[in-house]
Input
Amino acid sequence: MEIRDTIKNKFSNLLNDNKLSTSIELNIFDFITDYSNKNNISIDFDNNIFKLLYIAKSRQIYHNLDESSYIKNLKIKNLIKKKKIILEKICKYEHKELKPLKWKKFNKDIEILNSEISDFNKELNTTDQFKCPKCKKNKCVYYQLQTRSADEAITSFITCIYDGCGFTWKEN
Output
């Protein structure tokens, strides 16, 4: 149990709240125990896999709570203290939920890139000459490259653009 006490102390030093620290550590332990049960991992700190899972989850939560860490999550600590985050669920949160503003920007960037890709696909040669093997529609874009020697047929790289199908294939 020494490792669990060490983790509790680290959280206690960070949060200045023994009760909250104990609750966070218990949630980490319960989360890793559930995960281990589902994946046939022995629940024992002598088992390196269990120990590493416990430490990794502890670090993830700790670094999100530590405002000076590389994550720079400045809000979650106060949300926990104000009980706006359910402690029992903190271990189940993904990185996107632990720091939503950061990931909101990334998601917006991804949407912009997807839009640009979609615009690019519209500028490619659109044809009904190819039939999509997945959705069986004839709405495709394609480009052609000479991928082998000059005396062999050119290769067509085709993408279905029918209603978000997006299936890609090539034909010689």
User: Anything to note?
Assistant: The beta strands are 125-127, 140-145, 155-160, 168-171. Residues 2-92 form one domain. Residues 100-123 form the longest helix (24 residues).
